[in-house]
Amino acid sequence: MDILYRRGRATAADILEEIPDPPGYSAVRAMLRVLEEKKHIRHEEKDLRYVYLPVVPREKARRSAVAHLLDTFFDGSTEQAVATLLTVSASDLKPEDFDRLAALIEQARKEGR
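Below the sequence we write its predicted structure tokens.
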């Protein structure tokens, strides 16, 4: 999906070229078929090849993936997920990143999220 969002459209071969340490071509096609069955992508035929395009907006897919991540690894706890993210990447954050995160937390608190 990341490749499709970045490129806008791609064939299975295009996708295969961009995957580091890629699986086989048939594995990529199988994944594309599953994504299409789930209505995340669609295809168009061009020059006897399928060209795949994302259907689900990136932000909606992002929210769905995060919700799944929260449920799967953090028992639905946003607090646990944020705490884990901070322990993993706090050294990569700049002071302005912390300020922005604090502002987002304060805004969420005010909006009652």
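DSSP finds six helices and two strands in the chain.
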